[in-house]
Write a structure and sequence with these properties.
- The protein is mainly beta and about 450 residues long.
- The protein is built from three helices and 32 strands.
- The protein folds into three domains: about 140 residues, Immunoglobulin-like (Sandwich); about 160 residues, Immunoglobulin-like, CATH 2.60.40; about 130 residues, Cupredoxins -  blue copper proteins (Immunoglobulin-like, Sandwich), CATH 2.60.40.420.
- A hairpin with a 2-residue loop joins β23 and β24.
- Bound molecules: CU-O-CU linkage and copper (II) ion (2 copies).
- The site of one copper (II) ion (CU) has 4 residues, from β5.
């Protein structure tokens, strides 16, 4: 059982500067929750903010009533007289002040995260700070000789712009304006910041021993993509050994020179600082950035230490879903376009509409979903983990392995994913995880029946 209150607070993020935030428990990121597989977590969320909220556990295998459907509002404790879309959604479950979210967590060990998911306002709410980590652990993972304790480091990476008064500079400060044409146009592609924050700290410096470390990377940025690399690269051996993905451990480790992460994607990677001489400063750089956004953080290799860890050649079992198992194939396009008099981001030519169900998978069925895009869109499905079957008509990419819940589509690229829709009946969403695209309509409902 946990109780988390979302409230306004001030944080010192830039030295000597006071930044107003919206934070779970008044902090950014929110408190990290650690759970064990199969042991349900009940989280009572209380909303002391001036606006409604909705909480979603990203990556959670969660019954629909606790999944944070975008109109399942938790109204502010101080009352709310503003309008909301839930009024037009007869199925919306609205609570006043608090809501108990039940997460069965009957799922593999993985790095999940929780964040706001209110219809049309996810971008500004998350930007103001409404995001936190939820780590699920299990016996299988605990039995592996991986780095742990202070050598296991979750890195929640975001970008923010600060206004002159120290506040987060979201292009539309009045969230009620985010639907006005012309205002949305100024950040149609998504909101980018010029300060990189890791766990809420700008470009931190972290001391490490010359041993293997487990970096649990999450791109929690609204819209920015990163290609993470080490500078200098280790003198011998790969920069990163990936051991896990969105949905937990891979079957076997994979080596990468760099790791590309779109919004909401996670990569669990081992970096061996033992390959560097003591005294080295290793910068985690972002090859897709320029100037201030080309650097993420630094590691200072401070001392030698004994290292008993290892990366087993076999990490876990990942049952491959086969094309022949699929009983349905569905196609969805993710493109920008006009809808009525507004420019928006559309799935299958439509903006998000709570009254429209885009897919009704039968519980237990395996389905193939084919996505095509115009530009970069990280596509996320609630409820299920999937496997990437193909990318651009070819084999999946180097970072597509294991169980995923978010897949990064490149411009003009087609991707096929395969999933088994099991667990719970009810309505869920899938959407682009560029938060501004999501707010501007690139989301749709699916219902497991
Ligand atoms: Cu991380 Cu539907 O969200
Ligand atoms: Cu999600
Ligand atoms: Cu998008």
């Amino acid at each position: 059982r946990y109780e988390i209150t979302a409230r306004e607070a001030a944080a010192e993020i830039l030295p000597g500067v006071r930044t107003p935030i919206w934070g779970y428990e008044g902090i950014f990121p929110g408190p990290t929750i650690e759970s064990r597989r199969g042991r349900p977590a009940i989280v009572r969320h209380r909303n002391d903010l001036p606006v409604p909220t909705v909480v979603h556990l990203h990556g959670g295998h969660t019954p629909p009533e606790s999944d944070g459907y975008p109109t399942d509002l938790v109204l502010p404790t101080r009352g709310w007289s503003g309008g909301h879309h839930s009024m037009h959604d007869p199925a919306a479950a609205i609570t006043e002040g608090t809501r108990d979210y039940t997460f069965p967590l009957d799922q593999r060990a993985a790095l999940l995260w929780y964040h706001d998911h209110r219809m049309d306002f996810t971008g500004p709410a998350v930007y103001r700070g409404l995001a936190g980590l939820h780590i699920v652990r299990d016996d299988e993972e605990d039995a592996l000789p991986l780095p742990r304790g202070e050598r296991e480091i979750p890195l929640l990476i975001t970008d923010r712009t600060f206004a002159a008064d120290g506040s987060f500079d979201y292009p539309s400060l009045d969230p009620s304006l985010t639907r006005v044409p012309g205002v949305t146009d100024s950040y149609l592609a998504g909101v980018l910041g010029d300060v990189i924050l890791v766990n809420g700290v700008p470009w931190p410096v972290h001391e490490v021993s010359a041993t293997r470390h487990r970096l649990r990377l999450l791109n929690a940025s609204n819209a920015r993509r990163y290609e993470l690399a080490l500078d200098p690269p280790p003198p011998n051996g790969p920069a990163f050994v990936q051991i896990g993905s969105d949905g937990g451990l891979l079957e076997s480790p994979r080596e990468h020179g760099s790791i590309t992460l779109a919004s909401a994607e996670r990569v669990d990677a081992i970096v061996d600082f033992g390959r560097y001489p003591v005294g080295t400063e290793v910068t985690l750089v972002n090859r897709l950035g320029a100037g201030s956004t080309a650097q993420v953080m630094r590691f200072r290799v401070a001392r030698r230490e004994r290292d008993d860890t290892a990366i087993p050649a076999r990490l876990s079992e990942v049952e491959p879903l086969r094309r022949e198992q699929a009983v349905v194939t569905r196609d969805f396009s993710f493109r920008s376009g006009r809808h009525g008099d507004r420019h928006g981001w559309l799935i299958g030519g439509r903006p998000f509409d709570t009254g429209y169900v885009a897919a009704r998978p039968r519980l237990g069925d395996v389905e193939i979903w084919r996505f095509v895009t115009d530009l970069h869109h990280p596509i996320h499905l609630h409820l299920v983990n999937f496997q990437v079957l193909s990318r651009g008509g070819r084999a999946p990419g180097p970072l597509d392995g294991g169980w995923k819940d978010t897949v990064d589509l490149g411009p003009g690229e087609a991707v096929e994913v395969i999933a088994r829709f099991d667990g719970y009946r009810g309505r869920y969403v899938f959407h682009c995880h560029n938060a501004e695209h999501e707010d501007m309509g690139m989301m749709a409902t699916f219902e497991t029946v």
